[in-house]
Structure formats: C-alpha cells, structure tokens
UniProtKB/TrEMBL annotation:
Residues 12-59 form the Acyltransferase MbtK/IucB-like conserved domain. This is Lysine N-acyltransferase MbtK. GO terms for molecular function: N-acyltransferase activity. SUPFAM superfamilies: Acyl-CoA N-acyltransferases (Nat).
Length: 182
C-alpha cells in the first residue's frame, strides 16, 4: 500500500487584471465574511488588488494546489500597513492574510495544508523572523488554525474595521508546530 501523495503547492504573484475574475467569487462568498468584501463588484476587487500591487509594502499571491487555483495570500509589512501604531513592530515581522477558495466538496485538512504552505512561503525568506496576524476576534475557526501552526495570541486590538486578535508566530514556533525544519 502506498501513502497518498502530498498535494503540490505553488504560490505565484496575483495579477489584478487577470486574476480579479478568479478571486471575485472567493472574496464575496458568504464563507469569506471576515474578508469584508461581501458586496464588492468585480471592478471593486480589481481596484483593491491594483492598490495592493502598487503598494511598496503589500503583496498578493494566488496559491495553486496540484495546479489549480485554491487560495489567496497577502503579505505585508505591519510597520507600514494594517498595524501601524497598534503594536511595537520588531525587525523581521511580516504580516499575513490568507483565504481558501470556497468549494462544494471540502477536503478534510485542506485549510491546514494551505496555512502551512503560506507559512513555509513566508519563512522561506531568511529575513522573516516572525509572522503577525490580526484576524477578527469572532473568527474562531481561523484562531484554531493559527494556533495549529504555532501562533500565540497576544491581545485584542481595535482596528478601524474590526476588533482583531493580534497573534504572533516565530520561525521556531512554526517549526515545532509543523514538526519539521523549514
């Protein structure tokens, strides 16, 4: 008997003009409520990701699993975007958001595979010392996923759009949670 193959995960830069149509149904899906784009039109999504593409401290990516687009990932400098003035940034801090594409046929463990791939991608950069996240305090599912890959919640913070749970994950915490060195 052979073990099931581990899915191949690739991460590529998001092209706002080419990928807006792909991600529009993802970010407006009811399960993406915490993405806060429920009522966004295609042009709104395109515009939002054009702004990210033009920003020197914010990037967006499409994640492919076995060659199929499956998730959205954002990387940002929390000293410049999202968390300015809300915590004391440290050298090597990198902010992250991720969103798994909605599906009618969920696969057990898929979201854990995605967040692990996202964290591996972020820590592949030797300059990344710690990943910072700020999900909505009500998003219990993502808190559990974050903790599963090594995040430790620090405190609730008030952002303009939400009350968020500020959490951190060092390289060592991720390696311990992932069970392997990066």
């Amino acid at each position: 008997m052979t073990a099931p193959a581990t899915p191949a995960v690739e991460i590529r830069p998001l092209d706002p003009l080419k990928d807006a149509e792909l991600i529009h149904p993802w970010v407006t899906h009811p399960k993406a409520a915490f993405w806060m784009m429920q009522d966004a039109k295609l042009q709104d999504v395109e515009r939002a990701y054009m702004e990210i593409a033009a920003h020197p401290h914010h990037d967006a990516f499409i994640g492919l699993v076995d060659g199929e687009p499956a998730f959205l990932m954002e990387r940002y400098d929390p000293a410049e975007v999202e968390l300015v003035g809300l915590y004391e940034p440290q050298p090597g801090d990198v902010g992250m958001h991720f969103l798994v594409a909605p599906t009618d046929t969920p696969v057990h463990g898929f979201t854990r595979l995605v967040i692990t791939a996202v964290m591996r991608e972020l820590f592949a950069d030797p300059a990344t010392a710690r990943v910072v996240v700020e999900p909505d305090v009500r998003n219990k599912a993502v808190h559990a996923l974050n903790e599963a890959v090594g995040f430790v919640p620090e405190r609730a913070i008030q952002k303009p759009e939400k009350e968020a749970l500020l959490s951190f994950c060092t390289r060592a915490q991720f390696e311990t949670a992932a069970g392997a060195r990066i």
